[in-house]
Amino acid sequence: MRVVRLGEGVDANGEFAPAAIERTRKALSDYADIMVAAGVERVRMVATSATRDASNRDDFFAMTSEILGRVQPGARAEVISGDEEARLSFRGAVGELDAADGPFVVTDLGGGSTEVVVGDADGVRAAYSADIGCVRLTERCLPSDPPTTDEVVAAREFARGRLDPAFAAVPVDDARTWVGVAGTMTTLSAVGAGLAEYDPEVIHLSRISLDDLDVVCRRLVGMTRAERAALGPMHPGRVDVIGGGALVTMELARVLRERAEITDLVVSEHDILDGIALGLLD
């Protein structure tokens, strides 16, 4: 897994930065080498929030077509809707969970968007993709290091405004289990557990109380980037945006505590990637 920050600057500039496309090209080329060596026959690459917003996405697609064509002729990245992104994340996240613990609310907190999905063993009931993520919130509201009190207040208000439509569209009142996926959630779990280094086996299906989650989030928001970078389980690509992710998480937790009386968060290492892979088997 590589953090390429494809969405860097998209919220402000409306297009992919050349450096971001180059980082993605290098990672994708390495992946293609692995797939060719493994004899892969079918490949699917999906592009999410940042690609939906970028004016120069044709440059990105041309690059993906060239590289993925080495694995499967004609393959290229595809832009998926926020609704499909949410459904793929849900499928990946709940596959191992006990159906008796449902209904589930799954949140996939990415760089540019956050998907909120409710469903059970029978599938998705409702889903919404909100235009708020750790990169988008950081770039828009958190320029200081560490963020000032005013910046944090403004960021939480902005996150709340972007999440309100999600919770208006997705009924969470009868949800019994909150499942968080993607890098912000797994990092919060790792920091909360005090891990010396990132360990996916420990993090997968770990639980953290909302009280403890709040402590971890506030701690990370108040840190400087250098202090975050010194944390053992912190991925270098997440150092400058984890504060924004923590603030979005705090807003998610606030709503789910109030509406569904949820008291803890289950963190899953299985997410949209697993949903995409499972979809190739259909």
From TrEMBL:
InterPro entries: ATPase_NBD, GppA/Ppx_hydrolase, Ppx_GppA_N. It holds the Pfam family Ppx-GppA. Gene3D superfamilies: 3.30.420.40, Exopolyphosphatase. Domain 2 (3.30.420.150). Residues 2-277 form the Ppx/GppA phosphatase N-terminal domain. This is Ppx/GppA family phosphatase. It comes from Gordonia hankookensis.
